[in-house]
Amino acid sequence: MTTATRAWQLIAMGAACSCSLLTNVDDLRAPDAAAGSDGPKSLPKFVQQNANDFGGTANASLSFASPVQAHDTIVVCVRFDSGVSSFGTLAVTDTQGDSFHVDVGPIDTGTRQYVFSASDVAAGSPEIKVAVTGPAPVGLMTIYLLEYSGISGFSTGIGVTGSSAAVSSGARQVTSPGSLVLGFLTDDSVAVTPDIAFDVRSTLKGVVVEDEVALTAGTYAATGTTDAGTPWAALMAIYAP
Fold this sequence. Notes:
Layout: H1 3-28, E1 45-53, E2 59-63, E3 73-80, E4 89-94, E5 101-108, E6 112-118, E7 127-133, E8 141-149, E9 153-162, E10 166-168, E11 172-174, E12 179-187, E13 193-194, E14 199-202, E15 208-214, E16 218-220, E17 223-225, E18 232-240
Antiparallel strand pairs: 1-8, 2-7, 3-6, 3-8, 4-7, 5-6, 9-18, 10-17, 11-16, 12-15, 12-18, 13-17, 14-15
């Protein structure tokens, strides 16, 4: 055997060993934080949003700019006022027959706030409709639509009111790593400033709609800031991956 032939054999053996070691390292890597017994799960992903203020109306509708994908989740945040001392109740439907339910609310300050959602929705271009029963809004009806993929359903939620400079929904426990934490923060007088830890999806009319993916289990809260002494509401909804 020539020296050159022996050299090429050693190179080939080294390459083979390198590939084998790399394969073994890949096999030993820690599983994804959102993985379960059935394998890795996809983390929740923001797809699109739309928002609008409809003023004083008891019925309004809003759609996304692009079609919704099958099995995604639609979240609907709504804020409205009233001309009397009490508020009406809110219902959310869409033109595709998706089933919306209340996740958080009603939470009342000088306005009333809700968070609704529908999971595993049909593909298409639904028109989302909101209807107030009882005292009709007189000057404020704002709707915030969000579409997410990678959500299996609603987990837990909380809503509180306050008047401090620090806005917080209060804490809730995330037990499934990879859950989506969504905050809906409003103030009756001034704009709310979002928390830098969150991704901001809308600031229409000074309201903050924000979210983050909770990669580890633990306690989470939707937070922001505003002017001390003004009434605010903070709603948080957590969605499992």
